[in-house]
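Deliverable D5.2: sample structural annotation.
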Amino acid sequence: MSILLVLYRDSHLAGGSFRVAQNLIKGLSNLDIELTVMFTYGEPGEIHNERLCNTVYLEVKKSSYFHQWYRYRRFIKKYKPDIVHFIQCPLWALLFNKGNIKYLGHIHGGFFRTPLPFISKLIWKWMDFRLNRFVSITNGAKRAVIRKKLISKEKIFVVYNCVDCELLKLGFDKESSRKRLGLPLNADIIGSVGRVVNGRGYDDLIRFTKILGPSWHVLIVGNGPYMDELKEFANKHFDRNRVHFTGALSDVRYAYSAMDAYGFFARYDSFGLATAEAMASSIPIFGLKGAGEYMEIDNPLLTEDNCVLIERPNPEDQWREEIASTFESLKIKVLNKYKSGGIKKMTNIAKEDVNKKFDIPIHTSKMMDVYKTLINNSQ
Protein backbone atom coordinates (compact mmCIF):
# COMPACT_ATOMS: atom_id res chain seq x y z
CA MET A 1 0.00 0.00 0.00
CA SER A 2 1.33 3.45 -0.92
CA ILE A 3 0.02 6.52 0.91
CA LEU A 4 0.61 10.17 0.02
CA LEU A 5 -0.19 12.68 2.76
CA VAL A 6 -0.65 16.28 1.59
CA LEU A 7 -0.06 19.38 3.75
CA TYR A 8 0.60 23.05 3.08
CA ARG A 9 3.93 23.67 4.85
CA ASP A 10 6.52 21.71 6.82
CA SER A 11 6.30 23.81 9.98
CA HIS A 12 4.60 23.72 13.36
CA LEU A 13 3.44 27.27 12.56
CA ALA A 14 0.83 25.61 10.31
CA GLY A 15 -1.15 24.84 13.49
CA GLY A 16 -2.91 21.86 15.00
CA SER A 17 -3.41 20.00 11.72
CA PHE A 18 0.38 19.86 11.34
CA ARG A 19 0.67 18.10 14.71
CA VAL A 20 -2.12 15.74 13.64
CA ALA A 21 0.01 14.84 10.63
CA GLN A 22 3.17 14.46 12.71
CA ASN A 23 1.52 11.92 15.00
CA LEU A 24 -0.02 10.00 12.09
CA ILE A 25 3.38 9.84 10.37
CA LYS A 26 4.98 8.44 13.55
CA GLY A 27 2.41 5.66 13.62
CA LEU A 28 2.44 4.84 9.92
CA SER A 29 6.23 4.87 9.69
CA ASN A 30 6.35 1.69 11.79
CA LEU A 31 4.14 -0.24 9.34
CA ASP A 32 4.92 -2.05 6.12
CA ILE A 33 3.59 0.63 3.78
CA GLU A 34 5.12 3.13 1.41
CA LEU A 35 4.58 6.55 2.97
CA THR A 36 5.33 9.91 1.35
CA VAL A 37 4.43 13.38 2.59
CA MET A 38 3.96 16.20 0.11
CA PHE A 39 4.14 19.89 1.00
CA THR A 40 2.63 22.19 -1.58
CA TYR A 41 4.26 25.37 -0.25
CA GLY A 42 7.52 26.21 1.47
CA GLU A 43 10.80 24.42 2.09
CA PRO A 44 12.01 21.38 4.07
CA GLY A 45 11.39 21.64 7.82
CA GLU A 46 10.54 19.56 10.85
CA ILE A 47 8.96 16.48 9.25
CA HIS A 48 11.81 16.27 6.77
CA ASN A 49 14.32 16.48 9.62
CA GLU A 50 12.62 13.66 11.54
CA ARG A 51 13.52 11.28 8.67
CA LEU A 52 10.53 9.01 9.25
CA CYS A 53 9.29 8.98 5.64
CA ASN A 54 9.86 10.31 2.16
CA THR A 55 9.13 14.02 1.76
CA VAL A 56 8.37 16.03 -1.37
CA TYR A 57 8.28 19.83 -1.72
CA LEU A 58 6.43 21.36 -4.67
CA GLU A 59 7.52 24.89 -3.67
CA VAL A 60 4.44 26.52 -5.19
CA LYS A 61 4.83 30.21 -4.29
CA LYS A 62 1.14 31.03 -3.90
CA SER A 63 -2.15 29.29 -4.60
CA SER A 64 -2.78 31.92 -7.30
CA TYR A 65 0.37 30.83 -9.20
CA PHE A 66 -1.63 28.47 -11.42
CA HIS A 67 1.30 27.99 -13.75
CA GLN A 68 3.03 26.03 -10.95
CA TRP A 69 0.11 23.66 -10.28
CA TYR A 70 1.48 21.22 -12.84
CA ARG A 71 4.11 20.19 -10.28
CA TYR A 72 1.42 18.38 -8.30
CA ARG A 73 -0.02 16.71 -11.40
CA ARG A 74 3.43 15.63 -12.58
CA PHE A 75 4.28 14.03 -9.23
CA ILE A 76 0.95 12.18 -8.96
CA LYS A 77 1.37 10.84 -12.46
CA LYS A 78 4.87 9.58 -11.65
CA TYR A 79 4.32 8.25 -8.12
CA LYS A 80 0.79 6.79 -8.59
CA PRO A 81 -0.09 6.31 -4.90
CA ASP A 82 -2.96 4.07 -3.87
CA ILE A 83 -4.36 6.85 -1.66
CA VAL A 84 -3.90 10.61 -1.49
CA HIS A 85 -4.85 11.80 2.00
CA PHE A 86 -5.33 15.57 2.23
CA ILE A 87 -4.59 16.50 5.86
CA GLN A 88 -4.75 20.03 4.47
CA CYS A 89 -6.37 20.43 1.08
CA PRO A 90 -5.25 22.97 -1.54
CA LEU A 91 -8.44 23.22 -3.57
CA TRP A 92 -6.60 23.62 -6.85
CA ALA A 93 -5.00 20.18 -6.41
CA LEU A 94 -8.43 18.57 -6.75
CA LEU A 95 -8.44 19.56 -10.43
CA PHE A 96 -5.95 16.78 -11.15
CA ASN A 97 -7.53 13.76 -9.47
CA LYS A 98 -6.90 10.48 -11.29
CA GLY A 99 -9.54 7.78 -11.56
CA ASN A 100 -7.51 4.85 -10.20
CA ILE A 101 -6.32 6.71 -7.07
CA LYS A 102 -8.48 7.07 -3.94
CA TYR A 103 -8.74 10.55 -2.43
CA LEU A 104 -9.41 11.22 1.26
CA GLY A 105 -10.13 14.57 2.93
CA HIS A 106 -9.73 15.46 6.62
CA ILE A 107 -12.48 17.26 8.58
CA HIS A 108 -10.81 19.06 11.49
CA GLY A 109 -13.89 20.44 13.21
CA GLY A 110 -17.62 21.04 13.13
CA PHE A 111 -18.02 24.78 13.76
CA PHE A 112 -19.79 26.65 10.98
CA ARG A 113 -21.07 30.18 10.72
CA THR A 114 -24.84 30.56 10.49
CA PRO A 115 -25.86 31.13 7.83
CA LEU A 116 -22.97 29.45 6.03
CA PRO A 117 -21.52 31.82 3.39
CA PHE A 118 -22.20 30.83 -0.20
CA ILE A 119 -18.47 30.53 -1.00
CA SER A 120 -18.04 28.07 1.89
CA LYS A 121 -20.91 25.95 0.60
CA LEU A 122 -19.33 26.00 -2.84
CA ILE A 123 -15.96 24.85 -1.46
CA TRP A 124 -17.57 21.96 0.44
CA LYS A 125 -19.52 20.87 -2.64
CA TRP A 126 -16.32 20.98 -4.68
CA MET A 127 -14.55 18.75 -2.16
CA ASP A 128 -17.52 16.40 -1.93
CA PHE A 129 -17.51 16.06 -5.71
CA ARG A 130 -13.76 15.45 -6.05
CA LEU A 131 -12.95 13.35 -2.96
CA ASN A 132 -13.95 9.72 -2.50
CA ARG A 133 -14.26 9.80 1.28
CA PHE A 134 -13.60 11.95 4.34
CA VAL A 135 -12.29 11.29 7.84
CA SER A 136 -13.67 13.40 10.69
CA ILE A 137 -11.83 13.93 13.99
CA THR A 138 -15.02 13.50 16.07
CA ASN A 139 -18.52 12.10 15.69
CA GLY A 140 -19.86 15.56 16.50
CA ALA A 141 -17.94 17.14 13.63
CA LYS A 142 -19.34 14.44 11.34
CA ARG A 143 -22.88 15.18 12.50
CA ALA A 144 -22.34 18.92 11.97
CA VAL A 145 -21.24 18.40 8.38
CA ILE A 146 -24.20 16.11 7.71
CA ARG A 147 -26.63 18.51 9.39
CA LYS A 148 -25.43 21.29 7.08
CA LYS A 149 -25.93 18.90 4.11
CA LEU A 150 -22.35 19.41 2.99
CA ILE A 151 -21.38 15.74 2.71
CA SER A 152 -23.47 12.56 2.83
CA LYS A 153 -22.93 10.46 5.97
CA GLU A 154 -21.96 7.39 3.93
CA LYS A 155 -18.76 9.15 2.84
CA ILE A 156 -17.44 9.99 6.32
CA PHE A 157 -15.27 7.88 8.63
CA VAL A 158 -14.50 8.95 12.19
CA VAL A 159 -10.94 8.72 13.53
CA TYR A 160 -10.21 10.77 16.63
CA ASN A 161 -7.03 12.82 16.88
CA CYS A 162 -4.20 11.37 18.91
CA VAL A 163 -1.24 12.50 20.99
CA ASP A 164 2.21 11.01 21.38
CA CYS A 165 1.86 9.67 24.92
CA GLU A 166 5.32 8.09 24.91
CA LEU A 167 6.97 11.38 23.95
CA LEU A 168 4.96 13.37 26.48
CA LYS A 169 6.11 11.03 29.25
CA LEU A 170 9.60 12.37 28.58
CA GLY A 171 8.82 15.82 29.91
CA PHE A 172 11.43 18.24 31.18
CA ASP A 173 12.32 19.58 34.60
CA LYS A 174 10.03 22.45 35.61
CA GLU A 175 12.83 24.80 36.66
CA SER A 176 14.87 24.33 33.50
CA SER A 177 11.74 24.66 31.34
CA ARG A 178 10.82 27.95 32.98
CA LYS A 179 14.35 29.29 32.57
CA ARG A 180 14.29 28.31 28.91
CA LEU A 181 10.99 30.14 28.37
CA GLY A 182 11.89 33.14 30.53
CA LEU A 183 9.21 32.43 33.16
CA PRO A 184 9.31 33.18 36.90
CA LEU A 185 10.53 30.20 38.88
CA ASN A 186 8.34 30.61 41.96
CA ALA A 187 5.01 31.58 40.38
CA ASP A 188 1.95 29.39 39.85
CA ILE A 189 1.44 29.22 36.09
CA ILE A 190 -1.76 28.45 34.22
CA GLY A 191 -1.18 28.16 30.49
CA SER A 192 -2.84 27.44 27.18
CA VAL A 193 -1.54 26.31 23.79
CA GLY A 194 -3.05 27.12 20.42
CA ARG A 195 -3.57 29.64 17.66
CA VAL A 196 -4.11 33.11 19.10
CA VAL A 197 -7.55 33.99 17.77
CA ASN A 198 -10.53 35.56 19.52
CA GLY A 199 -12.50 32.34 19.80
CA ARG A 200 -9.79 30.63 21.86
CA GLY A 201 -10.90 32.60 24.93
CA TYR A 202 -7.46 33.81 26.01
CA ASP A 203 -9.07 36.99 27.30
CA ASP A 204 -11.21 34.85 29.64
CA LEU A 205 -8.10 33.00 30.78
CA ILE A 206 -6.51 36.32 31.75
CA ARG A 207 -9.64 37.55 33.53
CA PHE A 208 -9.94 34.29 35.47
CA THR A 209 -6.28 34.37 36.52
CA LYS A 210 -6.76 37.90 37.82
CA ILE A 211 -9.18 36.66 40.51
CA LEU A 212 -7.43 33.32 41.09
CA GLY A 213 -4.76 34.96 43.22
CA PRO A 214 -1.61 37.12 43.13
CA SER A 215 0.73 34.14 42.82
CA TRP A 216 -0.77 33.05 39.48
CA HIS A 217 0.68 33.97 36.08
CA VAL A 218 -0.62 33.30 32.55
CA LEU A 219 1.36 31.49 29.84
CA ILE A 220 0.10 31.71 26.24
CA VAL A 221 1.84 29.54 23.65
CA GLY A 222 1.10 30.23 20.00
CA ASN A 223 0.84 32.89 17.30
CA GLY A 224 -2.10 34.45 15.53
CA PRO A 225 -3.93 37.58 14.40
CA TYR A 226 -5.35 38.32 17.87
CA MET A 227 -1.91 38.68 19.49
CA ASP A 228 -1.61 42.49 19.51
CA GLU A 229 -5.18 42.94 20.73
CA LEU A 230 -4.63 40.34 23.45
CA LYS A 231 -1.47 42.06 24.69
CA GLU A 232 -3.37 45.33 24.80
CA PHE A 233 -6.14 43.60 26.76
CA ALA A 234 -3.58 42.25 29.25
CA ASN A 235 -2.08 45.72 29.72
CA LYS A 236 -5.48 47.27 30.32
CA HIS A 237 -7.16 44.64 32.51
CA PHE A 238 -4.30 42.80 34.22
CA ASP A 239 -0.67 43.04 35.25
CA ARG A 240 1.22 42.71 31.95
CA ASN A 241 4.23 41.33 33.85
CA ARG A 242 2.11 38.33 34.83
CA VAL A 243 1.14 37.42 31.27
CA HIS A 244 3.82 35.62 29.25
CA PHE A 245 3.81 35.02 25.48
CA THR A 246 6.25 32.52 23.96
CA GLY A 247 4.96 32.37 20.41
CA ALA A 248 4.68 28.94 18.79
CA LEU A 249 7.12 26.29 20.06
CA SER A 250 8.55 23.43 18.01
CA ASP A 251 8.59 21.32 21.20
CA VAL A 252 5.54 22.08 23.36
CA ARG A 253 6.80 19.79 26.14
CA TYR A 254 8.72 22.77 27.52
CA ALA A 255 5.43 24.63 27.93
CA TYR A 256 3.61 21.74 29.61
CA SER A 257 6.58 21.10 31.89
CA ALA A 258 6.47 24.75 33.01
CA MET A 259 2.74 24.74 33.82
CA ASP A 260 0.91 24.11 37.08
CA ALA A 261 -2.47 24.10 35.34
CA TYR A 262 -3.94 24.24 31.84
CA GLY A 263 -6.67 26.77 31.05
CA PHE A 264 -9.45 25.54 28.79
CA PHE A 265 -11.44 28.64 27.77
CA ALA A 266 -12.05 28.08 24.05
CA ARG A 267 -15.51 29.21 23.01
CA TYR A 268 -15.44 26.39 20.48
CA ASP A 269 -13.16 23.36 20.30
CA SER A 270 -13.72 20.20 18.34
CA PHE A 271 -11.30 17.69 19.84
CA GLY A 272 -8.81 19.72 21.87
CA LEU A 273 -5.41 18.41 20.76
CA ALA A 274 -3.37 20.65 23.08
CA THR A 275 -5.75 19.85 25.95
CA ALA A 276 -5.14 16.14 25.39
CA GLU A 277 -1.39 16.76 25.41
CA ALA A 278 -1.67 18.61 28.72
CA MET A 279 -3.70 15.72 30.16
CA ALA A 280 -1.07 13.23 29.01
CA SER A 281 1.52 15.46 30.72
CA SER A 282 -0.37 15.23 34.06
CA ILE A 283 -1.41 18.91 34.01
CA PRO A 284 -4.80 19.63 35.65
CA ILE A 285 -7.42 21.16 33.34
CA PHE A 286 -9.54 24.13 34.51
CA GLY A 287 -11.91 26.30 32.54
CA LEU A 288 -15.29 26.96 30.95
CA LYS A 289 -17.38 24.70 28.76
CA GLY A 290 -17.79 26.15 25.30
CA ALA A 291 -19.35 24.74 22.18
CA GLY A 292 -17.72 21.72 20.56
CA GLU A 293 -17.42 17.96 20.54
CA TYR A 294 -14.70 17.40 23.17
CA MET A 295 -17.28 16.09 25.70
CA GLU A 296 -19.42 14.13 23.24
CA ILE A 297 -21.01 10.95 24.59
CA ASP A 298 -19.49 8.76 21.86
CA ASN A 299 -15.88 9.15 22.98
CA PRO A 300 -15.30 12.17 25.26
CA LEU A 301 -11.91 13.73 25.83
CA LEU A 302 -13.07 15.77 28.83
CA THR A 303 -15.37 14.33 31.50
CA GLU A 304 -16.65 15.34 34.93
CA ASP A 305 -13.93 13.15 36.48
CA ASN A 306 -10.83 14.34 34.62
CA CYS A 307 -11.14 18.16 34.68
CA VAL A 308 -12.78 21.13 36.42
CA LEU A 309 -15.11 22.92 34.00
CA ILE A 310 -18.26 24.95 34.54
CA GLU A 311 -20.89 25.99 32.03
CA ARG A 312 -20.63 29.21 30.09
CA PRO A 313 -23.79 31.30 30.31
CA ASN A 314 -23.95 31.22 26.52
CA PRO A 315 -21.55 28.64 25.03
CA GLU A 316 -22.58 29.34 21.43
CA ASP A 317 -21.47 33.00 21.55
CA GLN A 318 -17.81 33.15 20.55
CA TRP A 319 -17.37 36.83 21.29
CA ARG A 320 -19.19 37.46 24.54
CA GLU A 321 -17.41 38.54 27.72
CA GLU A 322 -18.33 36.36 30.66
CA ILE A 323 -19.62 38.05 33.81
CA ALA A 324 -17.46 38.13 36.95
CA SER A 325 -19.69 35.68 38.82
CA THR A 326 -18.83 32.99 36.26
CA PHE A 327 -15.13 33.24 37.10
CA GLU A 328 -15.86 33.41 40.83
CA SER A 329 -17.79 30.14 40.61
CA LEU A 330 -14.91 28.52 38.74
CA LYS A 331 -12.39 29.84 41.26
CA ILE A 332 -14.33 28.31 44.16
CA LYS A 333 -14.53 24.96 42.40
CA VAL A 334 -10.80 24.96 41.56
CA LEU A 335 -9.69 25.94 45.08
CA ASN A 336 -12.00 23.31 46.60
CA LYS A 337 -10.38 20.70 44.37
CA TYR A 338 -6.95 21.71 45.72
CA LYS A 339 -8.14 21.82 49.34
CA SER A 340 -9.74 18.38 49.11
CA GLY A 341 -6.57 16.84 47.69
CA GLY A 342 -8.44 15.77 44.55
CA ILE A 343 -6.03 17.22 41.99
CA LYS A 344 -3.76 14.16 41.90
CA LYS A 345 -6.65 11.76 41.40
CA MET A 346 -8.13 13.97 38.68
CA THR A 347 -4.87 14.24 36.71
CA ASN A 348 -4.26 10.48 37.01
CA ILE A 349 -7.71 9.80 35.55
CA ALA A 350 -7.08 12.32 32.76
CA LYS A 351 -3.73 10.78 31.84
CA GLU A 352 -5.19 7.28 31.85
CA ASP A 353 -8.11 8.38 29.66
CA VAL A 354 -5.80 9.84 27.02
CA ASN A 355 -3.50 6.81 27.06
CA LYS A 356 -6.41 4.40 26.65
CA LYS A 357 -8.37 6.30 24.00
CA PHE A 358 -6.14 8.73 22.12
CA ASP A 359 -2.61 7.33 21.88
CA ILE A 360 -0.82 7.02 18.52
CA PRO A 361 -1.18 3.21 18.09
CA ILE A 362 -4.97 3.45 18.50
CA HIS A 363 -5.20 6.25 15.96
CA THR A 364 -2.91 4.48 13.49
CA SER A 365 -4.88 1.24 13.65
CA LYS A 366 -8.16 3.01 12.94
CA MET A 367 -6.63 5.04 10.12
CA MET A 368 -5.28 1.88 8.52
CA ASP A 369 -8.80 0.43 8.64
CA VAL A 370 -9.95 3.53 6.74
CA TYR A 371 -7.24 3.12 4.12
CA LYS A 372 -8.03 -0.57 3.59
CA THR A 373 -11.74 0.12 3.28
CA LEU A 374 -11.06 2.90 0.83
CA ILE A 375 -8.87 0.70 -1.38
CA ASN A 376 -11.35 -2.18 -1.31
CA ASN A 377 -14.28 0.10 -2.05
CA SER A 378 -14.95 0.36 -5.76
CA GLN A 379 -16.69 3.74 -5.38
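Annotation notes: Residues 360-376 form the longest helix (17 residues). The chain has two domains: 2-162+359-376, 165-357.
The annotation will be released with the project's public dataset once the embargo ends.
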